Structure to design on (397 residues):
């Protein structure tokens, strides 16, 4: 038991660290959050992926083995305990004899209270003797299935633009209806309004998610993981009137004939215009994209030129117009898929634990011996209330 408590304390400490320190992020994320030295220590000791670390797995294996051995040892003792209680109740002498009428009154009271008679011994809540054993088993079930839930999920990171959708491998469609960084009062509130639909379209759900408020749908948990800012460009072909809006999140070449067009290099949050008319670009996005500017290369007939384009401006390359629009924030989603059977096993373990604790605290086994020599109560827990009821029944004679 002492060894089990030490192991359990270690698992709780690791779980607490895993809850406080974001798991599975890039090294730069930890450097920005904790500094280079601390980040290196956290990564080296595995605190950035603690639920898959060797020492966490070892603690769980040892605790499971400990619980299994404790349960094996405890079960036969539990079976003998109730029989021993009956024997002690039958053999223990009493100092206060009862009249036949008093003994009968007590027997009637016990019968009404749900006690079962076996000769001169009345017993109740025999199943309560297994409460401690079932508590050990429930911890083992919760620990086992909980570990599988933590260690075996399929994790997919996806970005989705507002108004657009992504498809999962099983056909589930996730649409981002809207995304905002601030609420109506200007308070930071990273939230995405999502709609999820099953592959056959029969099930759907709409929910606003935040960092700690994921959406649950079809065995998946969809988290608000991160966010970014994407540029937009409207491409218009004057020849046939065709138009298309494209998102700009990384360097790319926008062209119709693969020779002439615009090469998007980067989107900057803002700029400072110097006295000589030149521009100094702001690279930090900490203040938001208050005055965004696009850095692009205009390529036409083999010649290229660097251009700074502002939202609303249009570049004409031959018969094609490239109009740069205001940037838009978009969410990064983390989608976790865990087997429904594992969740069912975990919930079963919690249910078993509740039932086992109920047996321990509210259904303590009790045996009462009643005859003309007196009465005797035996139970692993104090039964003062029962003794008072027995005494009251005896005094009614």
């Amino acid at each position: 038991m002492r060894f089990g408590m030490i192991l359990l304390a270690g698992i709780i400490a690791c779980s607490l660290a895993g809850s406080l320190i974001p798991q599975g992020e890039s090294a730069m994320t930890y450097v920005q959050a904790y500094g280079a030295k601390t980040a290196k220590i956290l990564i080296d000791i595995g605190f950035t992926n603690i639920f898959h670390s060797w020492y966490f797995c070892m603690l769980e294996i040892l605790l499971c083995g400990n619980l299994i051995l404790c349960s094996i040892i405890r079960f036969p003792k539990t079976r003998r305990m109730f029989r021993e209680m009956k024997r002690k109740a039958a053999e223990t002498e009493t100092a206060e004899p009862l009249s036949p009428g008093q003994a009968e009154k007590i027997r009637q009271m016990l019968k009404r209270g749900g006690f079962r008679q076996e000769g001169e011994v009345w017993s109740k809540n025999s199943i309560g003797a297994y409460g401690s054993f079932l508590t050990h088993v429930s911890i083992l079930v919760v620990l086992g299935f909980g570990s599988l839930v933590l260690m075996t999920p399929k994790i997919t990171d996806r970005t989705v633009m507002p108004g657009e959708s992504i498809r999962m491998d099983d056909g589930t469609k996730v649409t981002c209806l809207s995304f905002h960084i601030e609420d109506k009062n200007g308070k930071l509130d990273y939230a995405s309004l999502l709609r999820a639909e099953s592959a056959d379209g029969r099930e759907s759900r709409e929910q606003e998610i935040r960092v700690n408020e994921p959406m649950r749908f079809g065995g998946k948990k969809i988290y608000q993981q991160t966010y970014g800012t994407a540029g937009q460009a409207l491409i218009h072909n004057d020849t046939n009137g065709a138009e298309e809006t494209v998102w700009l999140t990384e360097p790319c070449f926008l062209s119709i004939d693969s020779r002439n067009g615009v090469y998007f290099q980067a989107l900057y949050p803002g700029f400072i215009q110097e006295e000589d008319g030149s521009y100094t670009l702001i690279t930090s996005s900490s203040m938001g994209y208050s005055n965004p500017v696009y850095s692009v290369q205009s390529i036409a007939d083999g010649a290229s030129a660097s251009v700074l384009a502002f939202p609303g401006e249009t570049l004409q390359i031959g018969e094609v117009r490239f109009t740069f629009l205001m940037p838009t924030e978009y969410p990064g989603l983390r989608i976790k898929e865990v087997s429904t059977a594992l969740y069912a096993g975990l919930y079963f373990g919690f249910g078993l634990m509740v039932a086992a604790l109920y047996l321990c605290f509210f259904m303590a086994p009790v045996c009462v011996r009643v005859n003309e020599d007196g009465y005797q109560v035996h139970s692993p827990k104090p039964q003062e209330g029962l003794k008072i009821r027995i005494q009251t029944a005896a005094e009614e004679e």
Summary: The chain has five domains: 1-52, 54-91+126-151+340-363, 92-120+364-397, 154-228+333-339, 230-329.
